């Protein structure tokens, strides 16, 4: 399998497969970013709907650092994040959506916003 190295070979870091690097490049170049939609009301009423879409992906490049894990005995909040992933394993595969609706009339306004996200690395094999 073709692999591309992160850092110099002398650092002996595990290589990421080329297909992962290609996926990162394509996602970066084709990301939509923010999208906005404004309603023309022909009055003092203004309506605007904004949406931001984001995708994030990351891989662990090194081994677990034992000076971080188990510093003062078992630390579930620190140890689980550091010890659950081995070198070269994907640690983040997240999709985010932020949506905002703004309505204004003269000096009054209303904003409704909501966000949603999913990180499939952490939801694999879980019900619901």
Supply database-style keywords.
6 strands; 3 helices; single chain; two-stranded antiparallel sheet; alpha+beta; disordered N terminus; 20% helix; 128 residues; 4-stranded antiparallel β-sheet
Question: Topology, please?
Answer:
Layout: E1 3-4, E2 16-17, H1 18-30, E3 33-39, E4 45-59, H2 76-83, E5 90-105, E6 108-119, H3 120-123
Antiparallel strand pairs: 1-2, 3-4, 4-5, 5-6
Describe this structure in words.
The chain has 128 residues and is α+β, with helices and mostly antiparallel strands. It has one domain. The strands form 2 sheets. A 4-stranded antiparallel β-sheet has the order 3-4-5-6. The chain has a two-stranded antiparallel sheet with strand order 1-2. The protein is elongated, with a radius of gyration of 22 Å. The N terminus is likely disordered.
Tally the helices: what do you get?
3
Q: What is the CA–CA distance across the termini?
A: 35 Å
Which band does the percent of strand residues land in? 35-45%
Domains, number: 1
Per DSSP E runs of 2 or more residues, the count of β-strands stands at 6
Largest sheet: 4 strands, antiparallel
Shape: elongated
Strand order of the largest sheet: 3-4-5-6
Radius of gyration: 22 Å
In N-to-C order, the SSE pattern is EEHEEHEEH
Please give the share of residues in helix.
Answer: 10-25%
Average the pLDDT over all residues and give the rounded result. Answer: 75
The unreliable regions are: 1-14
- Estimated structural class: alpha+beta
């Amino acid at each position: 399998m073709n692999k591309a190295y992160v850092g110099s070979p002398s650092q002996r870091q595990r290589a990421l497969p080329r297909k992962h690097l290609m996926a990162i490049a394509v996602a970066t170049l084709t990301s939509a970013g923010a999208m906005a939609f404004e309603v023309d009301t022909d009055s003092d009423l203004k309506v605007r709907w904004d949406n931001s879409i984001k995708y994030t992906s990351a891989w662990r490049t090194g081994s677990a650092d034992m000076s971080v894990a188990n510093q003062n005995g078992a630390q579930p909040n620190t140890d689980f994040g550091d010890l659950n992933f081995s070198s070269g394993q994907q640690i983040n595969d997240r999709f985010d959506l932020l949506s905002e609706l703004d309505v204004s009339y003269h000096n009054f306004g209303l904003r409704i916003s909501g966000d949603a996200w999913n990180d499939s690395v952490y939801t694999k094999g879980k019900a619901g």
